[in-house]
Amino acid sequence: MYRKVKALEQVRLLRIQLVHLKNMFKTCRLAKNILEFYDSVPGHLTEDLHLFSLNDLTDIKKGDLGPRLKELVRLGTLHVDKCMLCQAKGFICEFCQSDEVIFPFELSKCRRCEECKACYHKGCFCSDHCPKCERLRARRDQMAKQSLESYNSEPEEEETIQERKMDRAE
């Protein structure tokens, strides 16, 4: 349905941005004022991507909902640009190592790994391998290997302790 109705697709993209922004603002102590703006629209618009009320659909058709959501995205983006706490929640692209901080709500710039949710530049994340997922996988494999090695070495230690006890008894 999103492909057939352009206005609906535009609202869907704005709502994706709003969800990401609102999640950031929930953990920013300086974003109380902006959260009040976000709470001025029905909660499902900023929390549940695919839920629409009949009023929402009517407002989309009339062209009213898109501009309201676009304004919320603009206000949210302004806050993130100026807020040091929100800037600290951004990502650095691990592929190109650019100093540019990117955010999940920047849909035109950013692509997110579905598994670990890390962000990368759209142009950089061409393949299906994610550096963070690979690091996490390697760490899990190493931990499993260490755990297996320590498990396998325990019986040997028990045998050595038993031998020592027998030597002491003699």
Tag the structure with descriptive keywords.
Rubicon Homology domain-containing protein, 170 residues, Autophagy_HostDef_Reg, 4 strands, two-stranded antiparallel sheet, 6% strand, 2 domains, RH_dom, mainly alpha, single chain
Question: Can you offer a commentary on this structure?
Answer:
The protein is mostly helical. The protein has 2 domains: 6-89, no CATH class; 95-170. Helices cover 60% and strands 6% of the residues. The chain has helices at residues 6-26, 32-38, 44-47, 54-62, 65-82, 84-87, 131-169; strands at 91-92, 101-102, 110-112, 119-121. Helix 1 (6-26) packs antiparallel against helix 2 and helix 1 (6-26) runs parallel beside helix 5 (65-82). The protein starts with 5 loop residues before the first helix and ends with a helix. The relative contact order is 0.10.
